[in-house]
Amino acid sequence: MEGTSTAIEKGNELTAEGEVQWLPSPVVAEVYYGVAYTKSETERRQVQNALLGYPRVDVDEEVARTASQLLAVADREAGGNSGVETNDAYIAAIADVLNDAVLTGNGDDFETLGVAVETY
After folding, report:
1. How far is the C-alpha of 5 from the C-alpha of 57, rounded, in Å?
2. Alpha-carbon distance 69 to 18, whole Å?
3. Which domains are assigned to the chain?
4. For FRET with 117, which of 35, 66, 70, 92 sits at 20 to 30 Å CA-CA?
5. pTM for this structure?
6. Whole-angstrom Cα distance, residue 111 to residue 68?
7. Model confidence pLDDT, tens digit, residues 57-96
């Protein structure tokens, strides 16, 4: 959404390889939080258009259960609060359930959760 050139290049590479780029519903929530915070109609339209081409994956019971397990393990290993937010646990769980990697500019929290990470 920020137009980071390395992210765009990675997205183009994945598309060329025929890789499905899933859009977890928690990511949709994070993006629309930014829109609501800025109160920008222009940004809302840009976000809405940018998100149109991606298949969604919603949080269901399996994803919620997996997210809870991943976060509990990370917190236990940290001796308390791992610092990973619940939304990131949902995103990690979706990747885990789909047997796919999380594509991100910063993989620290997802690595803490023990899921495959691919950065750009």
Report:
1. 25
2. 31
3. 22-119 (3.40.50.1010)
4. 35
5. 0.86
6. 16
7. 999 999 999 999 999 999 999 999 999 999 999 999 999 9
